[in-house]
Design goal:
heterodimer, A: mainly alpha, three-stranded mixed β-sheet, 26 helices, B: mainly beta, 22-stranded antiparallel barrel, 11 helices, 7% helix, globular, disordered N terminus
Amino acid sequence: MKTMKRNTYKIAGVCLLTVTMLSCNKRLDEVNPGGATADVTWSTPDGFITNVNGAYQEQRAFYGKEDGLLVAESGTDLWFNANKASYATQITRYSNLTANTSGSAGTVFRLFYRAINVCNAGINRIDGAGFTDEAIKNRYLAELRFLRAFYYWHIVEQFGGVNLRTTETSEVELTAKRSPVSAFYDLIISDLQFAAANALSPDQLGNEYSRASKKSALGLLARAYLSRAYYATGSERQNYFTLARNTANEVIARKEEFGVSLYASPAELWNPANNKRNREALYTISNSTNPSLDYDNNANRLHAWFLTQYSNKPGLTLSIPYGFDNQRRLQPTRYLLDLFNEQMDGRYAASFQETWIANSTNPGTTAYTWTAAQAATYGKAPSVVGTPVVSGRDIAYQVTKNVVADKATKPWVLYDRNDLFETDGRIKSITDFVALKKFIDNTRTIPNSQPGYADIVVIRLAEMYLISAEAEFQLGNVGAAAQQLNVLRARAAVKAPVDYTLAMQANTETMLATSVANGGGIKFILEERARELCGEHLRWFDLKRVLNDNNFASYIKTQNPDITDVQDFHRLRPIPLAELNALSNAAEFGQNPGY
Amino acid sequence: MRKIYLLFLLLLATVVVQAQNRALSGRVVDAGNSETLIGVAVTVKGSTTGTITDVNGKFTVNVPAGPVTLVIKYVGYAEQTVTYTAADQDVTVKLAVQQNALDDVVVIGYGTIKRRDLTGSVSSVKAVDIARTPTHNALEAIQGRAAGVDITRSSGAAGSGVNIQLRGTRSIANNLSGPNLNSPLLVVDGVQNGGSINNINPNDIESIEVLQDASSTAIYGSQGANGVIIVTTKKGKTGKAKVSYNGYYGINGFTQFPQPRTGDDYLNLRRESYRGITTNDSQIFTGNGELAAIQAGAVVNWVDLATQNGSQQSHTVNVSGGSETTKAFFSLGYFNEQGQLKNNDYTRYNFRYNIDHKLNSWAKAGIVGQLAFSENNARRDPLSVALTAFPYGNPYNADGSVNTFPISSYYTGAATGTFLNPLTDERTNASVDETVGTEINATAYVELNPIKGLTFRSNLGTVLGNSRRGQFNDAFSLLQNNLRYSLATVTNNNSRYYNWDNIVTYNRDFKKHSFTVTALSSYIHSDVDVSEASGTNQVLSSQLFYNLAGTSQTVGRNISSGFTRYDLLAYAGRINYSYDGKYLFQATLRADGASRLAPGKKWDSFPSVSAGWVISRESFLSDVSQLSNLKLRASYGISGNSALGPYSTQSLITPVNMSFGEVAAPAYSFNGIVVSPELGWEKSKTLDLGFDVALLKNRITATVDWYLTKTSDLLYPRSLPQSSGQSTIFQNIASTQNAGINASLTTVNLQSKDFKWTTTATFSHNSEKITGLIDGRDIINTETNSLFIGSQIQSFYSYQKTGIWQLGENAAAVRFGTTPFKAGDIKVADLNNDGVIDATNDRTVIGHVQPRWYGGLQNNFSYKNFDLNVFLLARYGQMVNAQFVGRYDPSGVLNSPANFNYWTPNNPSNDFPSPGRGSLANLYPGTYTSLNYIDGSFFKIKNVSLGYTLPKTVTDKIKVGSLRIYATGSNLFTFSKNDLLKNYDPERGGAESSPLSRQLVFGVNLDF
């Protein structure tokens, strides 16, 4: 009996333990003190700013990165693969461009829609974010709407009338429908109009100068009106050209209010010292020298992609002012170089580098002395053997678009027009080319490092003159168009020793009145844009806008005969296969024509 | 006891009567560890004469003159019959532990069972086999020794772990970051997830059991959906204290890795890429100093320089013993591996303590656990760089230090450039990646027996981990190449884990009926916090990561931290019933709750039933003497898997870097995952049919299982259209089916006095397929991440390479997109014969990651004091994504393996496409990946071990119990089906970093 009793206690104890354990059901509630959800974070004014800031992110995946540059500049009349290499040829030459090998275009599609979703989230959530000051709320809404318009402008120009989304994706969505291009522009224009009215003035931005402000919104709006006009006909077309002109002119008129102005010369414009807070900028992508503040470790690599390889030449070594030459991507076509009359037009010297002074030793000391072996390698006359080349003084390397008559006797490595190009304009040299130096980056501190921290000017004042001129031209106001172009041409003119200002302006109106067949009219405007904006992430959009489904391919092939695979349907990029594969109504949605 | 006296009397009588008889004396030892065996029955065949061994394992038996046959029997060991000649004296009999002995106790979930009563599918590997492979990881040691378990070493880096998978893939949501959702549950001494297997000294392990079918794993519910591996560590035994030492030392290296092109072989490829463009070397070798280095003939084989022969050693001392009330096992272990790369090593110290104490007649308690301390120096693998680097230059400076820019001396100008030495990380303080970790496992239990048959056990297992990873890479390290600033990072990880299980077991036998009822509750809690700090531009590189205050104050400091917690709660019950050991039955029900699932979906329950029929015990088979055992088994059950990481049902946003000017701007973006609160458990229904058979007095034993697992509601991160701006959404989307056969066969082929040969073979075949997807459409994402109904989960979806377009063929008749093919291009199958290769119509499933079958073959030979083990391993029918095959660079700018045969107009190869100016991806967009996917089938000699046990006379002299010395070679030879895998060990798949190395070690097993 006693044992029985003891056993009872034991069993009771066991049961007690088990019951204790059963009572911890509430421990199955998830505990996540470190996590952030959209609902919580973006519901207060302070937290909401993280949405606005996050919406800028993907622009920085475009500017300063290869995908952005290739999509926006290559595959045009101006550029071909550096050294004729086979690199990203889907984009640079339209070779093998398919839905599944759309390269950089596919990346842009994915990233920009990602950003649009963040913008949509912010735009639709801002009323619940608890802003009490309407002006402050609208200021952030203006930034978001500017950004959405920015992303959609790229999407619609690259891919045409695809999926226009204005709400945040919060549940499974496996279908998409196409919207007409006009619907995209309706959204873009209304977003930018709101932004232009409600964004901060540039002077209110202070040190955060690279946020979108009124000048950015108006600048992008002018660009959007201009490209919208080309989709329209009749009076609607005239209407959009008028709006484009008026908006561009408004920016020009308000430039003092916006604190922007043209530099006196192209050299000043592209002086690396003027890179940060560039006076001409309407909208800027800024990079910080602190890598933890940048989008990624690459920051800005634009500086590397247009350079020819100079550092393997005698007397030269990698340096900051000459740049990082080991990642060559694009080289200019003969057509681009020949657009410039470099005697008169200062933009050539400010944009391109043709000569390199020896730098491999201390300035004033002999970098090297020509040997017979070197003379043989570089095709020099025996007379150069024994000639010393002094750092900081003597030319070590020259690549020129012109013909040099006596190049064998020049005591430096020299490639001239005949080395660079075939007579039909195709690229001949597989090693050397004239380098675009607009993006030389003095924020770099080590010559063989790749990231640069320079800013990228996305929209600048000069483009407003070009937009205004193009709109005036399309409205039939050739005189007004010439007037706007001449502002830039006057600024571009070489002033000393001879002042070419008048010469630069002299033929503008005549050229605008000349037929396209004779190199005038809209072709002249396209050429002026190339002279002013080459390399600045606009050329593909310019060709896409101005050319049409009958002349896109033939125009590019004529100016850039190395591009042989381009076809007219390439005016639109293919919808990435990843998008179509994920859609349950892919057949209904459809691929862009030709692919 | 009385019987024994009688026996002695009888013996004595015999001796007196038969004066011409002689006395044969000898000793009986364990064949595995040479321990003496006490109380072994020794009888003379054909007579009633017999004896038992004394406390020293010795016996003396009177036998007739002439040859005599002894029968030696001992519980738990295989019976042995040995014939001796008249001259034999002082013989040693080695008894082997009985293979598949039906009385073996098998550890199952929350209890043990005799193998004869088992109804599920459980493989078991014992200590002897575990200690045979020289590795730090016990799971690598059981590779190929248990059917149904596919184990491969994950990489050749020092201290790296294994990939393990049971009976195929069920969960799909596998390739996301986070835990491998198909990996089995590890139970260490009753504790679920009781620490990392990498931290357990294989010498401390008594047995490893692998529970495979649903009825065996059901007691673990959701935790056991992918099988359960139970590790039981050694315990003290009552008796004299024993001290033993096990150790080995050896070489680690002789790595199989493709050799890079050197000399003309390299130059010709690069020149060939300019065919028709130029033949002028100065236009071809344009990199800074390249041409001069070639002209100087400074050839380098970077792969040779990057690899070395490392070493591997292990030393374990353990003490075991105990009284009637207290038993203890202690061990101290040291393991060190020096990898095949300089500065890559792994060191581990283990302190284990297992103590059991009997408090009184109805209560006992104990504490089991260990402290493991490990230090791992990892290294960014330089082999891919070494394989592809320009094969010329001066690798070292005159003083023997690494020359950072190996061809800088071949051109004028500053001693810098862009070609960084592949060995750059070998410079002093250039690159450090050191992880020191401590893991403390402490498990305490109390077990009460209040009344006969009733046991209550409460088991509290804790695992406390902390680790610190410190990384430093200077401006010229491989990692910071391109960026050119140094980066120092410290990451601290603290984890707390506990598992509290309460188990009540009631056991009752009456007449021929036997019942066991088990009820339990189980609670698991885990929380981990991580903090990380990094800085750039460390002023003194010698400070490495030890002084982050020395990094630049203004530029590039980063801090972050994170926290993850989850909880699991479960209740389960099990009933076992046996009638006369003939009819066996088991039923289990478990209810599981997981914190990571959404409210309302957290709980689910999982039942299973199983039955066994021991036919050999039926009277109608009692006459068949050849049949020692025959049992049929069947089981069916449902298990679940919450195949998601914690917080997967919360819509999270992630911080991103953003600034305006130099002003930091806090920013968040979506993390790409749209959540759906509807997510529920994945469920697997498994049917398992099997039989165990033993023939000819257990000389042949075999176990065969057939299984069919149907898994439904599989969670999958489905790709959303890119225009949604999000990437994926988790959905219960798919169903899969795995069916297969596991078999193992052990035979004693030869057994005589001096020579014994046994063979164990395991064979596993699994066929896996997706049986359904949410809307019946295949899900096409990337080449390695798409799902097709009817195919395996991890399938490769690409173009089917059929060769290279040759000169005589009409290549231009087929186009890729709009571009016609030409001779020398990769030729792929035009599946719909429309003359256009396109991604939608011409890609297909060309292979899969899981093998068609895999198996192991273990042969043990012993001759007198020598023993030889040969272990072979094969995996067949899997495809690998061979990274280094994709290293072929048609432009020759990057080097590639020497044995790659590329096409030229004069060399109509079908292996690799024509050289040209651009990378594979640029010259052959789309089709180039079809090169990488190749047949990874292989067969390898995994281990050969030769041992010698010193004779008793010698060991007595040097006053030790027993001493065995041995040599073991691992990963010795590999034979691959595909020639491109020549010079490569494909066991770990196709990755090129950290290839597997060979080991050759020499060791001793010593008992005092």
